[in-house]
């Protein structure tokens, strides 16, 4: 289980014990810290001593996730936000979807059994529009593109071709493609482009417990749309180069 963090100390005091209480027990918890200033690392180590705590190599949520993916030793990788919005008790459902044949278990707030205590009408409408674009571009049937609670088999990582965590931070301070909040959309696109088997898993999103969200409705929506277009171009270029005809 990969838990990216940046100033989530108060939330980790609740989230990490809840993860540890899940049965069947999770194989490992990897907390990836983004240079927090609120004692996140110390709280993680004190609250769950057996968790592995590492520091991301560059900046951005995508880089944090890639660092966690690389450090993982289990067969299954679960992406889990540290803000308390995700329910650890849903983890077995994600793993079960993989065991039953899925390559990628995609959490959804909008399929039957899912829900959200946090999403606004504006964000819900925006998500629906982005779903439509994604499904038309990639031939998917996603009901919830913009949700980060997902799981997949670890041996699929090479196919995802995420930025190497060992690569240096660009000198101009910019982020490599995939290092930012676009990571979840990038993953959804690349799983679809690779023709992997995707199963949606109903999930109920809860409100963030402490701290302020980093989501910016219009800016993030625009970034997701740009990501969809860029990943579609990437897919088409690769298919053309390989002689694949749709």
List the helices and strands and how they pair.
Blueprint: E1 2-5, H1 9-20, E2 30-33, H2 40-47, E3 52-55, H3 61-71, E4 76-79, H4 91-99, E5 104-108, E6 115-116, H5 121-138, E7 150-153, H6 157-160, H7 183-193, E8 198-202, E9 204-205, H8 217-242
Parallel strand pairs: 1-2, 2-3, 5-8, 6-9
Antiparallel strand pairs: 4-7, 5-7
Helix pairs in contact: 1-2, 5-8, 7-8
Pfam families: Glycos_transf_2
Domain Glycosyltransferase 2-like: 2-152
Family: Belongs to the glycosyltransferase 2 family.
Estimated helix fraction: 40-55%
| Largest beta-sheet characterization | 4 strands, mixed
- The proportion of strand residues reads 5-15%
The radius of gyration over CA amounts to 17 Å
The geometry reads as: globular
Low-pLDDT stretches: none
Oligomer: single chain
Give a structural overview.
Belongs to the glycosyltransferase 2 family. It holds the Pfam family Glycos_transf_2. Residues 2-152 form the Glycosyltransferase 2-like domain. It comes from Pseudonocardia alni subsp. carboxydivorans. This is Glycosyltransferase family 2 protein. The chain is of the alpha/beta class. The protein has eight helices and nine strands. The strands form three sheets. The protein has a four-stranded mixed sheet with strand order 4-7-5-8. Helix 1 packs parallel to helix 2, helix 5 runs parallel beside helix 8 and helix 7 (183-193) runs parallel beside helix 8. The longest helix is centred in the last third of the chain and has 26 residues, at 217-242. It starts with a strand and ends with a helix. The mean pLDDT is 92.
